[in-house]
Inverse folding.
């Protein structure tokens, strides 16, 4: 992961609606990149293009290139299933599988990929839960339903589930927007821990959060990337007046 | 509106809705009570173990009809459930528009076709080509009745599974078929089972489509290409007979039929109860 992710001239559509216009940026490896912008500006669509989840929606289309380790995710012959194993995703609303226990939720990715060995699974589950800072809270109730945990724990369970398959990149789509400040603080702490091993891209509505956790920030508006740069610089000395208006709360 | 008046209206409306809810289950309670009153006296060990006696002789039982109904239901399920459930998966998951629309429309029409017409269909297709009445023909007729119910409930229940769960599974790098088999179907399981139970309960009591397919049989069932007895047929034959003893047995048969449906639903629910299922 020396190269990180290079996005070139990325366009995305829902049916006839053109939602992303020629996005180009470079995401640094083993760092946190934040994407900010008002609702409907295309930030979620953008990160869903990074693991080929955008095309899951009927009528959705993508053009352009997304290079991960120099390989284009959208080259012909690339299997989206393989892409998603390397690039994990955490969603806005915690979505543990309701029919599975805590353990089974975390093991789901490996098990469904064919891993049967109990010792391997046990080990992977413990590692992922520890990594997601949840192990101490749930180690005594691994067989309880995943949905029995609190909201913040469920979100960390989803992070553990994504980590268990060993991705190199973790995409987070407003992972804290449904959580209280304490749970949010835990997830942010976790993000700072995870960036030692992973490339993280996080979409957030919360500008303080972007400032706290990220090295680089991109500001999206109406499907365009208005500004992209070092987080501190973007927040203290924005180059574009639209960015300035947004971060100072004058619109959006 | 004063608070007093609002409270008063609240009490009245709450009572009315409770009364209406009670009213909907009242018919079932009456039917059950009436069946017990009329038929309980004819229920004894013989009823479950003996064949019917010749005309005019008292005693005997409906063992062959009970077994026949169970065989017919099993046969109809074996034919109808795989087709209905797999078809429902297609309807829920397909990205096509026209074909699913057409199938849905035809299934809804099929659901409204009178069961005797479906009996005629099975008669034409199976009975005429085999040149005999048979358990198989009865099973086919019942399966056709089950199909649209199972098809549509499977589809509806799968659609109730939140899109966020599919996305979570896809984002883990699961191929689409595993997302369906390991995540969507288990989540929708309880709802699909309810649909299956409704379908089974529906066909267990069907009489008309069996009249000229399964035909009925006064003796033990031999092979699937032979006529077979069924509880609804036996009840029908006994109810229109002139003998008091047979009338009593018809009531008892109806009681057994209802109890059977009740037990099958209950057993299936208990046997397939997931630890934590989402859609109920």
């Amino acid at each position: 992961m020396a190269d990180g992710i290079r996005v070139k001239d990325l366009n995305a559509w829902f049916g006839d609606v053109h939602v992303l216009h020629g996005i180009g940026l470079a995401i640094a490896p083993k760092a946190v990149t934040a994407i900010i912008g008002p609702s409907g500006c295309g930030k979620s669509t953008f990160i869903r293009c990074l693991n080929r989840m955008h095309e899951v929606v009927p009528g959705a289309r993508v053009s352009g290139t997304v290079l991960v380790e120099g390989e284009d995710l959208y080259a012909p012959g690339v299997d989206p299933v393989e892409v998603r194993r390397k690039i994990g995703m955490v969603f806005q609303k915690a979505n543990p599988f309701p029919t599975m226990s805590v353990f089974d939720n975390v093991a789901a990715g490996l098990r469904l990929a064919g891993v049967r060995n109990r010792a391997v699974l046990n080990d992977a589950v413990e590692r992922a839960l520890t990594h997601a800072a949840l192990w101490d809270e749930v180690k005594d109730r691994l067989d309880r339903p995943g949905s029995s945990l609190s909201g913040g724990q469920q979100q960390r369970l989803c992070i553990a589930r994504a980590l268990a398959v060993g991705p190199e990149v973790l995409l987070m789509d407003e992972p804290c927007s449904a959580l209280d400040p304490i749970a949010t603080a835990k997830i942010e702490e976790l993000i700072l821990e995870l960036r030692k091993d992973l490339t993280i891209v996080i979409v957030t509505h919360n500008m303080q959060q972007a400032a706290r956790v990220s090295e680089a920030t991109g500001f999206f508006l109406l499907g365009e990337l208005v500004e992209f740069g070092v987080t501190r610089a973007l927040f203290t000395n924005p180059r574009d007046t639209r960015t300035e208006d947004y971060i100072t709360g004058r619109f959006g | 509106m004063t608070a007093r008046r609002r409270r008063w209206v609240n009490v009245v409306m709450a009572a009315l809705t409770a009364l209406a809810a009670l009213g909907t289950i009242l018919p079932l309670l009456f039917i059950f009570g009436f069946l017990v009153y009329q038929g309980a006296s004819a229920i004894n060990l013989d009823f479950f173990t003996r064949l019917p006696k010749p005309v005019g002789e008292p005693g005997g039982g409906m063992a062959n009809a009970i077994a026949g109904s169970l065989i017919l239901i099993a046969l109809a399920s074996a034919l109808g459930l795989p087709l209905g459930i797999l078809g429902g998966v297609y309807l829920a998951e397909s990205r096509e528009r026209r074909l699913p629309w057409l199938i849905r429309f035809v299934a809804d029409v099929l659901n409204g076709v009178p069961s005797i017409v479906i009996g005629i269909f099975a008669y034409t297709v199976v009975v005429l080509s085999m040149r005999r009445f048979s358990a198989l023909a009865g099973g086919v007729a019942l399966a056709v009745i089950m199909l649209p119910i199972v098809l549509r409930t499977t589809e509806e229940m799968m659609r109730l599974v939140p899109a966020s769960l599919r996305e979570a599974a896809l984002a883990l790098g699961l191929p689409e078929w595993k997302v369906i088999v390991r995540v969507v179907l288990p989540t929708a399981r309880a709802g699909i089972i309810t649909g299956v139970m409704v379908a089974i309960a529906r066909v267990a009591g069907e009489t008309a489509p069996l009249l000229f397919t399964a035909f009925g049989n006064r003796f033990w069932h031999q092979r699937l290409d032979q006529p077979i007895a069924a509880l609804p047929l036996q009840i029908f034959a006994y109810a229109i007979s002139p003998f008091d003893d047979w009338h009593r047995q018809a009531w008892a048969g109806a009681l057994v039929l209802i109890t059977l449906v009740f037990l099958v639903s209950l057993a299936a629910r208990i046997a397939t109860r997931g630890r934590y299922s989402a859609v109920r």
